[in-house]
Write a structure and sequence with these properties.
alpha+beta, 5-stranded mixed β-barrel, 4-stranded antiparallel beta sheet, 15% strand, elongated
Length: 597
Amino acid sequence: MAAPKKGRSHGAQSRPGRTLAFILIAMVALTGGMFLSGHTTPRLGIDLAGGTSITLKAKSEPGQKNAVNQTNMNTAVSIIERRVNGLGVTESEVQTQGSDNIIVNIPKGTNEAQAREQVGTTAQLYFRPVITVAAGAPTPEPSASPSGSDKGKATDKATDKAADKATDGGTGKASSTPTPTPAASATPQGRAVTDALKADSSPTPSAGSSASGKPTPSASSTPDPATAALQKKFTDLDCTDKAARSQVTSGVRPEDTAVACGKNSSGQWEKYILGPAEVNGKDVDKAQATINQQTGAWVVNMDFTGSGSKKFAKITSKLSQQQPPMNQFAIVLDGDVVSAPSVSSTLSGSAEISGSFDQQSAQDLANVLSYGALPLSFQEQSVTTVTAALGGEQLHAGLIAGAIGLLLVVIYLVVYYRGLSLIALASLMVSAILTYVIMTLLGPAIGFALNLPAVCGAIVAIGITADSFIVFFERIRDEIREGRSLRPSVERAWPRARRTILVSDFVSFLAAAVLFVVTVGKVQGFAFTLGLTTVLDVVVVFLFTKPLMTLLARKKFFASGHPWSGLDPKRLGAKPPLRRTRRAPGSPVGPVDTKEA
């Protein structure tokens, strides 16, 4: 039985070279990836690198009283922080100032234009039924012509053809391509608007409707003043003018009939008259940017809440019974129509926003929809540049303190552990390289930024890592004190040391995780760095320190207990090896005596 056991022990100790080769290959791969990415230094936070400070002033929407209050301001801070800060490690700072201002500090090196867009986007999302749609440029009122009746016939034929096409292709899904509006292009625009508004207010067939359900306008009917004003706004609107688009959406309430602009699938501007909002962004549970498998285009998929799903089913049920373009619903984000799909059957549960998206724009839209709409509108008051002079001085002082602490650790290891200190120092170096490379790669990957608290977390990690080495070394020394040789001592000490190291690192990681969850801002940077270095401590001890110790235990310098190895049995006060005396045949059984070898 002794021989197989020895074979297993030998096999277990013959693999440290493979483990060391694995971690060294991983280090080379990560370092190569760092250089290939073009980022060779960690991205710094605003206190170390400077950046941009944006001041936003809150304002109430028309019809809202006392909307600018502490609750809404705190909600806005939380949403803006999640938008621009991603995982909470990019070190963007969002805080209130006074009763109606929010200060957003964005570190240098961040995509500041994108961050400013995320900050300023209110993300008010509404699903509105489409009443009518036309080309985005303003169209003058055409004069009456003798062939007007023929044009009316052409309109009816075109409308019937479009309706048949929408019905035949119905699959139960909302089409992402807006259905063309023959009525808007074949009849005078003013009459089309009036007819559409009447149809929207009376969707069921009546005396003024034809057998097919299409409204039949009366020549003697005249629009009310509100309808006439909306008609004029729609007719005069030029969607190619940014100022005009902004002005037409200003002050519009969800319950109002609205005029809005949007681009179709060809990238051309179109203008819409939209009914009151039926579903809003609060009814969206989550949103995700994905690629449509059929078209290969980027889209945003939304899942509704329970109540939102019921509202969405109600509006799509009503729209599926209408004729084009009134069977479309417009997805309106901050006043702009991002998509206007048509509906052929009742839908519920989810919806898809499509348009001229690339990956970044789709992810940005999904981001603002997932984190929710701001309860207030904000106006950008000022944009200033922040310097890093004070942070640079603090970093210099912190690095000096860290260097002094590291030097004291090295002196302690050399004096007390002697030759074993080489293993500890090599392990510290591997841990430092992995920490630096991973922090650098996390900059472009998740937006991680290194700030002063994060530097403090990295310095604290030196003590955590050194503590793991000390636990392992002391376990080995305990085994040598019991009279065992070095190689068996390493293998017997490892299970007990491993258990202690895992428990200690678990407690540190748990503390870092709790700190990351319950805090905000720069403290999250400290918690993130502490958690990262704790995980790396486990990796280094298991994949580098233990295999290296196993290899060196086979070397004569350590195995023979050289005085400078740190494992000298005499210096450790080891007990002499113990042997049992053989009992002579026939001798009585009694206490076993021991003798020195």
